[in-house]
């Protein structure tokens, strides 16, 4: 299975996978508006891959086959202040 991967110029670390290069007909209009003008990153074959860097390859394949696209959102940002407070409150309690 081939797919084209595009990055969003509006949303950092957000990628859109589609089956056919430059064919966004299956992507909802609202999503395309939010995503912005897609910028091609790569065209890749998922057939012989068993993993992707930041996405679950099985989920990507399933979504491409069922809805024609897959949206990869950035990983949640780590709340360093919350982690610091949590670690210090535990240390203070001991």
Oligomeric state as shown: single chain
Write down the CATH class. Answer: Alpha Beta
Strand content: 15-25%
Under CATH, the topology can be stated as NE1680-like fold
Q: What best-fitting shape do the alpha-carbon axes yield?
A: globular
Describe the structure in your own words:
The protein is an alpha+beta fold and 94 residues long. The chain has one domain: YcgL domain (NE1680-like fold), CATH 3.10.510. The chain contains 3 helices and 4 strands. A hairpin with a 7-residue loop joins strand 1 and strand 2. The protein is globular. The mean pLDDT is 89.
Q: Layout of SSEs?
A:
Blueprint: E1 2-7, E2 15-18, H1 29-35, E3 39-45, H2 57-67, E4 69-72, H3 80-93
Antiparallel strand pairs: 1-2, 1-3, 2-4
């Amino acid at each position: 299975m081939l797919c084209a991967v595009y990055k969003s110029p509006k949303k950092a670390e957000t990628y859109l996978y589609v089956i056919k290069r430059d064919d966004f007909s299956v992507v909802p209009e609202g999503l395309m508006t939010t995503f912005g003008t897609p910028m091609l990153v790569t065209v890749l074959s998922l057939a012989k891959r068993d993993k992707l860097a930041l996405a679950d390859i099985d989920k990507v394949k399933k979504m491409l086959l069922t809805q024609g696209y897959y949206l990869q959102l950035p990983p949640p940002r780590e709340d360093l202040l919350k982690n610091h407070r949590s670690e210090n409150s535990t240390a203070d309690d001991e």
